[in-house]
Design brief:
Order of helices and strands: HHEEHHHHEEHHEHEHEHEHEE
Distance between the termini: 66 Å
Low-confidence stretches: none
Shape: globular
Oligomer: single chain
Number of strands: 10
Structural class: alpha+beta
Largest sheet: 5 strands, mixed
Mean pLDDT: 89
Length: 372
Amino acid sequence: MKIKDTKLNYTLNVVSRWVVGLVFLFSSFVKGVDPMGTMFKVQDYMSNWEILGMSFDWALPLAGVLAVGLICAEFLVGVMLILNSFRVVTAWMLTIMMAFFTVTTLFDAITNLVDDCGCFGDAIKLTNWQTFWKNVILDVPTVWILLTCRLRMKRRFERDCIVFIAGLAVMLVFCIYNINHEPVIDFRPWKVGNQMIDMEEGSTPKSYVTYKNKQTGETMEFESAKLMEYLSDSAWANTWEWESSRVEMPEIKAPGFSMLDMEGSDRALDMITAEEGLVIITIHHLEKIGAKDVEEIKTAITLAEENGKEIVLLTSALPEDIQTWMYENKIDGLEYYFADATAIETMMRGNPGFMYVQNAVVMNKGRKAIEL
């Protein structure tokens, strides 16, 4: 199909390139800020998807490379669309990527095997159906870009090569930096400065009781603290009878987060709301902790002791494994708690990671022993 070279058709090409290009740049940037988050999402797909009975568990070690490759490819397509570089190649790259994204997200929306595609990292969360329809909308300008990619062609090979190489280098360096450090822009719940519980609701559990009217069957619920006020009214006390009670725990703004002790009790709320502050060392994969990491952990313990701060270890390892590891590395007296590896990875990408929390506020975090 040949498209006439008219001013309108070319203008639509320019608008389409800028719209899709900006979306791709934004998508690649928020993923490039946190390549490990994208890697975890790729692993989700590999673990949950099967095609014709074939699983992709064998490819899990390649998840990191594929994540960085995807981020760089998205960024390059976005840059080349906006700067009008390698027009035909870029149009075909875009078409292939959008076809893949559309089919993948349609399958996701139907099966819900992966509940979030991570197309905008942790910056914007979309449902699977929202993601699919977003891709369908982008397919329209994508088709137009492909159909009109040869309009007003100009040969500028050297300039386009510079754009390609520079774009690849910039995003590759950006990804590598963020892999070796905590994300430069943190979109996750445990961002420095975030209040991890709603202090307006209070940081202590609230008890409620429900009483039933003996005559009408009407029920009313109120805080247990106000019970004596009602019972002091003899007329009310003779008319209403206790029916049930419940306890409402303050909600931590990090779904799935817990700090389980050896008895299985969740101590998270008590620990992060400590007024004197708490240093949390996180380890989501104990087998990847090396000698330098152990020294950094010992430095953090020393700093905490010198500043009079409580310090604990939060890990996904088995109790017997963490006990053996602490004995072998001569780490004594360090309290440890347990959590799901994914919850710890959401909290800190580093392994180990170090976080200082006070009154449920994230005061500081990093991959090295932090200032208190």
